[in-house]
Design brief:
single chain, about 130 residues, mainly alpha
């Protein structure tokens, strides 16, 4: 594949392209690494480790609140037991104190380190369910 790519580059630039010494990085991995680096400047909380379910996920930071870590921790707790899932569902379906019930209850989502868009999806779902 790189050999064929090298031929096209040589044809376009008229310069040698040593395909054995070059490599192309995967754009999806580059985006994932860049997103993880950006998120790590704002949130110091860890991702969920299935082998250690009782670990505290919210990193302690005295200078500001870690919203990503808080949402991640709440999502883990809500999804960790059937009774919590049912309580969360019932809260969404109730109609009291001016709360508008939803027609179908939804769960909070949890992000994964290997999927760069999963943190955005987790935060968006939490924002939609904030009431």
């Amino acid at each position: 594949m790189m050999e064929e790519f090298g031929k096209h580059i040589e044809d376009l630039t008229h310069k040698p392209f040593e395909h054995k010494k070059r490599r192309l990085r995967c754009l999806a991995h580059i985006v994932n690494l860049a997103t993880q680096a950006l998120l790590s400047t704002h949130s110091k909380s860890k991702h969920v480790d299935a082998t250690k379910p009782d670990d505290d996920l919210v990193a302690s930071r005295h200078d500001q609140r870690d919203e990503v870590g808080l949402v991640r921790s709440i999502s883990v707790k809500e999804r960790s037991s059937a009774s919590r899932k049912e309580l969360f569902r019932m809260i969404q379906l109730r109609a009291e104190n001016g709360h508008v019930p939803v027609s179908n209850a939804r769960q909070l989502l949890l992000d994964m380190k290997v999927r760069w868009s999963s943190t955005f999806i987790m935060l968006r779902r939490a924002y939609e369910l904030r009431e």
